[in-house]
Design goal:
It is built from eleven helices and eleven strands.
Length: about 300
């Protein structure tokens, strides 16, 4: 039986503070990758030089700055392995990560991923092992409760799905949603991927749920013709709940500007969500919280 070969694709933009540790974690794998492709996305630091200094099996591809999706897609197109494992330039792998994924490879499987730990400004574990596979890998679940990140995933070479270049937020989720139509997913039991959380992450941006929701709406409109009406309703309701929870979190932590952005965004959607008990509760609490915030001055933006 042939052992599957793995190409590692690392998109990198100004990743020099973290890249050495990331590459070291790849080269320490018990299942050695056949190649490590670092796609330098127009970095202005010495990321490309750091990657090149490692020599084989690391090779560097340079492109002008076009974003992570373009970089990952280029790496996939250039990969020679049977499988492609993605890793962001600031994340880390446990030495057993690739071996554990290769052990789950079988015909019909297009993606093998691991649970993951977060470290840095936010620590925790994302593990959906308690969710039955028949629910875990439905579009409704993946779209509203994203739990697969590129750094935790290994995908079969030759798949048609690519990271969308039209999306700036939530592009990873769109990729995996499209990939669901190509075959089965498998999950390693252990969290063998470590995701670094810091100020440059998308998840740290204010009211980012609005941007992610806009991406999901466009995907539903342009790329999800295979979904039933019932699935679409479930997805819309799931995102409604996500936005409401994000609004409550903003209020709880006293982030007035972010709270107002969510309220303004959800206002025009009331007709679409008409009859929703959750939205009614949100409207009631919004009035109550408005009184709390009136005692606090609004932050002002200087205009030139």
């Amino acid at each position: 039986m042939n052992v599957p070969t793995v190409s590692v694709v690392i998109p990198c933009y100004n990743g020099s503070p973290f890249l050495p540790a990331t590459l070291d974690s790849v080269l320490a794998q018990t299942h050695s990758p056949m190649e490590v492709i670092v796609v330098d996305d127009g970095s202005t630091d010495d990321s490309a030089a750091i990657a090149a200094s490692y020599g084989n099996p690391v090779r560097v591809i340079r492109q002008k700055n076009q974003g992570e999706s373009v970089a990952r897609n280029l790496g996939m197109d250039q990969a020679r392995g049977d499988w492609v494992a993605f890793l962001d330039a600031d994340d880390l792998w446990n030495p057993r990560k690739l071996q554990a994924q290769v052990d789950l490879v079988e015909p019909g499987v297009v993606c093998v991923h691991t649970p993951y730990r977060t470290f840095g400004v936010l620590e925790g574990v994302c593990d959906r092992g308690h969710v039955a596979e028949k629910y875990r890998y439905t579009p409704e679940y993946v779209c509203t409760r994203p739990f697969i990140t590129p750094s935790s995933a290994m995908v079969r070479s030759g798949i048609k799905s690519r990271f969308p270049t039209w999306a700036q937020y939530g592009e990873d989720t769109v990729f995996f949603l499209d990939l669901l139509t190509e075959g089965a997913f498998r999950m390693v039991e252990e969290p063998l991927t470590e995701i670094r959380r810091h100020s440059r992450n998308q998840s740290g941006k204010q009211a980012v749920e609005i941007e992610w929701h806009q991406t999901m709406l466009k995907w539903l409109e342009t790329s999800a013709g295979h979904l039933s009406d019932e699935q679409r309703v479930t997805i819309h309701r799931g995102w409604q709940s996500r936005l409401i929870r994000a609004t409550w979190r903003a209020r709880w932590h006293g982030r007035r500007d972010e709270y107002d952005r969510y309220r303004d965004y959800m206002g025009p959607a009331r007709d679409f969500w008409k009859g929703s008990a959750a939205l009614a509760v949100f409207a009631l609490r919004s009035r109550l919280w408005g009184g709390v915030f009136r005692s606090r001055p609004r932050s002002r933006t200087n205009k030139s």
